[in-house]
Structure formats: structure tokens, C-alpha cells
Automatic annotation (TrEMBL):
It comes from Streptomyces albus. Keywords: Isomerase. GO terms for cellular component: cytoplasmic side of plasma membrane; cytosol. The lineage of its organism: Bacteria, Bacillati, Actinomycetota, Actinomycetes, Kitasatosporales. This is Topoisomerase II. GO terms for biological process: negative regulation of cell division.
Amino acid sequence: FNDEDYRRAIEVLGKQYPIILTDSGTGLLYSAMRGVLDLADQLIIISTPSVDGASSASTTLDWLSAHGYADLVQRSLTVISGVRETGKMIKVDDIVQHFETRCRGVVVVPFDEHLAAGAEVDLDMMRPKTREAYFHLSALVAEDFARAQQQQGLWTGDGQNPPPQFAPPMPGQQGYPAAAQPMPGQPMPGQQGGPGQPAAGQQVPGQQIPGQQPYAPQQPGPGQPYPQQQPQPQHPGQPQQ
């Protein structure tokens, strides 16, 4: 799996998914990493609350800045994961202050027994503080969406290229949902009805109300007199009615 393969995969996935997450692992020198960095809008750097973990994450940022990704480093987020309330580790506040000078934001995620098990993630099994930390991380990631969309020309804040009215179709769906169409003979939403067209709530003459039984062809409407009966001609030999 090389750089070209990654770019081709992102091109295909980008037609169906507006957000794509790539777990690049700990390596920076494998062939696909060039495509990962070139196509990334944001980076999330993970650090443990230890001297080695913080040093490794800081070295990663140094390497990125030295290889032409300084802007990406400034937009990146650092997550200090697995922070225990008790333990012989360096002061977490010092790590936070260090990365706040280099990144756009820092999030501290407390240690969670459910996540440490490595099984399927169940949000209800996570500690409330852990869920709150990941919610904060998601909010920080979303703050950069507008900049990325404007940079790619998807939409601008000046109204010349507004955002789409509908979300992109889900995988397996075709096109966008169609707007609701009026019933035949009714005006479009916001359009005044033409001459002879009933207003909203008025019955169209001759139109049957749903659930109402239609009148027989020779039965008058409510409040209308019965038409005068005309005598029917009698045939010879037929009894009188």
C-alpha cells in the first residue's frame, strides 16, 4: 500500500463520505505517509502522560515542521491520553502548556478501564469524564471544518458559493432528495394562487372531501331543493305506478 494507492482510496471514499479518519500509526517514513500528510486537513497527535510519550509527540511535530508541514502542525491537536488521577508520572499541566504553544488545542483524556480493555467501545460503559473529553475533542475538530471547506472552494462565507441545501447522499443512494411538490392545480410554496384557484383550506368545487360519501347523481346538495319530477310516459298496457 503506497502513496498512489492511498490517494486513489481517498478519491473514491471522498465521493461518499464528508469526513475521513486515517490512523497512520507511529511511523512517518513509509511510502503512503506522503499522501496522508498532503491530503490531511488536520492532524491529531497522541501522547501519553509520560516523559517518553511527550518527547516522542514533540519530536513528531519537529519532523513535520522541518519537512514542509508547519501549517499543518499549527492546525493540529494534541491528545494526552490515559491520564490517571494517581500515579508516578510527570505533571500533566506541564505537558499541556508545552503543546499549547505548538498546536491549535490540547485535550486531556483520563484513563478509562473500558477503553483499556481494547474491546468494542460502548459509550455507556465509559466514564462521564472520558465521554466529556472526547466530546471536547470532537468540537475542536469541527471548529476547523469551515476553514477547510472554504479553502477547497466547497462554500464561502460571502454568499457567492453557499453551502448545499441537502447533505450528500448516503452510500447506495442516488442523487439528492427531491423537494416536496405541490398537488396538481395548487400553487408552489410561497406563490399566490391564480384567478379561480381556492385559498388554503377552501374546498375545490366538485371535489369530494376525504371520508365523505358522494351524493347520488340525482340527489341535491345540502340545503338545495329537490328538482321537480317530470311525468314519465306510460306504454299501453303498463300498470300505473
